[in-house]
Amino acid sequence: MANVQSLQGPRGTKPRRRFSGRNIMIYGTLLFVSLYYILPLWVMVMTSLKGMPEIRLGNVFGPPVDITFQPWVKAWAEACTGLNCDGLSRGFWNSVQILVPSVILSIAVASVNGYALVNWRFKGSEVFFTILIFGSFIPYQVMLYPIVIILREMGIYGTLWGLVLVHTIFGMPILTLLFRNYFSSIPEELFKAARVDGAGFWGIYFRIMLPMSLPIFVVAVILQVTGIWNDFLFGVVYTKPDLYPMTVQLNNIVNSVQGVKEYNVNMAATILTGLVPLIVYFVSGKLFVRGIAAGAVKG
C-alpha cells in the first residue's frame, strides 16, 4: 500500500509559481503606485533639509550634501504671513483649539444619532435620516453665505467656536451613517436583553454600545481629524487673521510674494502641516481597518 502511494506522488493543490504573470502585474502595479506617492514626499523632505544655494543647483532628487534644520525652524517660528512673522506656530495652536472640540462634539452627537436611529426608532426617523444624508451631497460652497448670516446673528462669526459649530454640523451626515450601519450590525438580542433587565436609553448606550464600538469610533476620529485639520475653505471664511488655522497660515507662507522664494521653508511648512493626520493614522491604522471591515460600510 505504501508503495502504491509513493508511486502516485504528493497530493494537494499545486503550488503557484512565485513569478507568475499575475503576480508580476500585481506587484508591479503596487510598486508603481507606491513610487507615485513616495517620490513627492522624498522630494519634499530632501528639499526641506537643504540650503537655498544647494537647491539652486537643481538636483531635486538627490539627498542634501549639508543637512540643515534651519528651514524647519523658520517655517515653525519665523516665516512671515502678512504682518505676522511667527511662522506656523500660531496657526498650529488655532488648529488644535478647532480640532479637539469639533471631533468630540461631532462624534458624540453622531454616535447617539446612529444609536437612536437603529435601536430607538421613532415616527419619521427614516425621513429624518434621508434628509440628513441628502444634506451631505449639497456642495459646501452653496451654503457658505447662509451660514455666515446664521453665525453673525448668533454672535459667533469670526470666532473659533463658530468654526467648531460649522465642522460639527458638516461632519454629522457621514458620521451618523457610519454609526448607524455599525450599530445595525450588533446583534439585536443584546439590546432586547438589556431592555428586559430594565436598562434605559443611556444605560444601553454607555454599558453595551460604547464598549463594543471602539473600531468605528477610531474610524470616525481619523475621518474627522483628517477633514478638519486639512480644511482651508471654512477656516479662511469663518475666522479672522488672528485665528486662522494652520492650513491658511501655510497658504499665506507658500504664496507670499515678498522677498526670495524659499522652497526649503515651504516644503518644511507643508510637512509640518500634514504631520498630525499622518501620526493619528499610523497610530490607529489597524483599528481603522477593523472598523471598516466590522460594519462601517454595511447598510
Give an overview in words.
This protein has 299 residues and is mostly helical. The protein folds into two domains: 2-68, no CATH class; 89-296, MetI-like (MetI-like fold). 71% of the residues lie in helices and 0% in strands. The protein has helices at 2-8, 21-48, 52-55, 70-77, 89-119, 125-135, 140-154, 160-184, 188-196, 201-209, 214-229, 233-238, 246-254, 263-296. Helix 2 packs across helix 14. The radius of gyration is 26 Å and the shape is globular. The N and C termini lie far apart (56 Å). The relative contact order is 0.13. The model has no long low-confidence stretch (mean pLDDT 83).
CATH topology of the largest domain: MetI-like fold
From the N-terminal CA to the C-terminal CA, the straight-line distance is: 56 Å
Silhouette: globular
CA-atom Rg in angstroms: 26 Å
Order of helices and strands: HHHHHHHHHHHHHH
Number of domains: 2
Number of strands: 0
CATH homologous superfamily of the largest domain - what is it? MetI-like
Q: Determine the fraction of residues in helical runs and give it as a percent range.
A: over 70%
Portion of residues in beta strands equals: under 5%
CATH class of the largest domain: Mainly Alpha
Query: What is the CATH architecture descriptor of the largest domain?
Result: Orthogonal Bundle
- Mean of residue pLDDT values: 83
- Provide the structure class: mainly alpha
